[in-house]
Amino acid sequence: MNIALVANDNKKTLMENLCVAYRHILIKHDLYATGTTGTLIEETSSLPVHKYLAGDLGGEQQLASQISNNVIDLIIFLKDTDPMVKIDHTAETVIRLCNEHNIPLATNLATAEVLLLALDRGDLDWRNLVKESTAQ
Asked: Which domains, ranges and CATH numbers included, belong to the chain?
C-alpha cells in the first residue's frame, strides 16, 4: 500500500518516533512524504521514502494530486493543534480530498497507531479493490 506521511513543524519529532516504533509495519509498504519530513524519517528509521518537494514548494500539490488520482491508500498527517498557528490550508485540502475519495486519514498519534495496526492485520485490503475499480 502507498502511505503518505506529513507532519507540521512541531510534530516532526513525533512522526519520527512513530516511524521508528512501527518500522516493522511501514517497511512492508511504499512511503511518501514531503521533503523535510521524508528526509527526517529516512535518517531516524532507515525507511525508504519517496519524497515530494518541500510542502510550500509544491509538495502539497503533489500529495493532493496523488490523493485525487487514488494513488495514496492511507495518510498520516500529524497536524499542529495550536490555535495560535495560522490556518493550515494544506490540512484542509488533504482532509477534504480524503473524505471525497474515501482514503483513511489519521491526524493524531492515537488514530495513526490504530490505522497502522489495522493495516498490519489486513483490515485495509479493501483499498486494493477500490484502486482496481478506478483503474478500469
From this structure: 2-80+88-118 (3.40.50.1380)
